[in-house]
Task: structure prediction
Amino acid sequence: MKKFTFALMALLAFTFSLKAQQYVSTEPTNRNVILEEFTGRNCGYCTDGHARANQIMAANPGRVFAMNLHCTSLSPTSYPNLNCPDGTAISNGFSFDGIPTGVVNRHSGTAADRGQWAGLTNQQLNQAAECNVAGFVAINPQTRMATITVEVYYTGNSTADQNYLTVAMLQDSILGAQADYGNYNPSQWIGNQYVHMHTMRDVINESVWGDPISPTTQGTLITRTYQYEIPEVIGSPNGAEVVLDHIHFLAFVTERLQGTPTRPILNACQLEQVYGSDDPIYPAVMGVMQSGGTTCSHTKDIEVNVQNLGTETITSMTVEVEMEGQTKTINWEGEMPQYGGEKLITTLDVPFGTHTVNAAIVEANGVSYTNQGSGSINCAEWAELEIEGEEEELRLDLMQDKYGAQITWSFTASDGTVIASGGPYTTLAGGATVTQLNIEHITVPANECVTFTIHDGGQNGICCSYGHGYYIVKDSQGNVLFGDENDGQFGEEASHLLSVRGPQAAVEVGETEVSNVDYNHADFVSSLVYEGYPEGVGFECRKVTSSEPLIIPGILNEFGKILGSTDELEHSSIYVVKSYAVVNGETYYGAETTFQTWMEGVNELEETLKIYPNPTSGILNIQGEDMKSIEVYNTIGQCVMTQEVNGNDIQLNTESLNNGIYFLRVRTNDGAVLNRTFSVAR
Result:
């Protein structure tokens, strides 16, 4: 009997989801493949099937998943008994004469010989998928309870009104006996023990053929959540232990072709998997990666994927993202339920090369917390081309080797749009080292980051034993942008970035005006002059004693004003702020403005304090009520002047002060503290 429950109510059995997808892509893709291999421990040729399946998976990482079903009389019940009721039920649904045989995406009701698997797999991989599948598994190791969330998004229409979603648990690294007539798969032997991999242990659904899902039309998102208690042992008698570290889950969608027993798989995936916890607060960094399209800029978007593995809903987090001494802080607020996730985005200035980025959650739900992860990001070098018009014609000189039919190339825009492509070329007659020059002309737009890619199907470049080939890309004046007569030895593929910079629209970012300052709050406004709409606007604010900026996203109103505000300032602190605008991947800044937050104890007497003239070139007049003392601070927080006051008027001589901005702090006899900013200009 299955140990699972639906986490969705029955009336939600079909879903036009009102919630955006969290895991699954909405972009059309080709099919992934489930290879169900019928096998057995007493089958001497089955190790050859295992080796062939391993080779197919290695050639298609992340797209082909083997599922070994131990069945027939050649699968004994001695330890480890790898038979399971669900595996038997599935194998009984197909026709086969012997093992090792298998079905590829259940495209047929008859199992295929192992020699056919690779060809059938390639056919499936090249077919457009009607839907995408993705999801997440969180396992509590104390209770052995798995929370499984699967999302299905239809990028096309299924031919059936109802499909079926199946989730299967597989296990690796089970040691046991295995017949092997020809030592076909030596890599899976440890001494006299065979390492059984991708063994199907259980289907978590009520039916081995999956749960019905609908509708199956383009644009539909279906989400299913399961609670599944992982058995400690599967198989009777002599069952094998289910080791949590060795299991994984496959999810796939099938349709039942009317009038036939065939159940073709439309798409499949291996679900992401983590350990959960009974701890109330347990957000975890699941990955750090570079996001966004290709850019010819050192400013890169960094994506931090966070998952809530605890029992309490996360409503706030502070995440610090660091790379080689450069740190950005992300302050997040929202609702992240148990096993929910968020993608947090920040930017870093990334030098050329590959770098490690560390992300640490330092606070969650208002309490100190520690969890961290890391990832690699890369900033590839690019060639620069400045042009005067809106486009440029490039010339590609491609000297092919003998096997031109293996050569293809493309120029791609930053959003993935193919600007131009070419090849394959002809296979040349004659000797092994013959070559032929192909000249191509490509028009690329201005203000674009273009990727040139050349691919050789033979995976050995365009050189050497088959002719000395090369590629060179030039601008319209004949200047070489990249490539030379030695650039044929690139193996399978080579790529280059090219920044095509045309006439730039003027970008002017104004000085920031600061208003409504109190203990922790300030409002900002700045002007922007630009003929177009920027990719981003906002403000960078930092304490004068710190180099770490607080990034405050802004909005651009219809009058060309950048607006922003924050409640994350510290009281009694001096800040500098500047506005910014991101245009064509470059960040433009306005002039810095200095301001000071209130000290604790400030009261409504603030408005009674008057200073003039401001700016001053000499004497600064100060008028207030019941003043006791004054202090003057510079922009780095140093006290540069103090004076006792008895009364409501004072004249302050500023001749000893350099030109610049200063902060005036007035203390009254009743303990209030009043603040003003003034400047000295001579």
In short: The chain has five domains: 4-275, 283-379, 382-501, 508-596, 604-680.
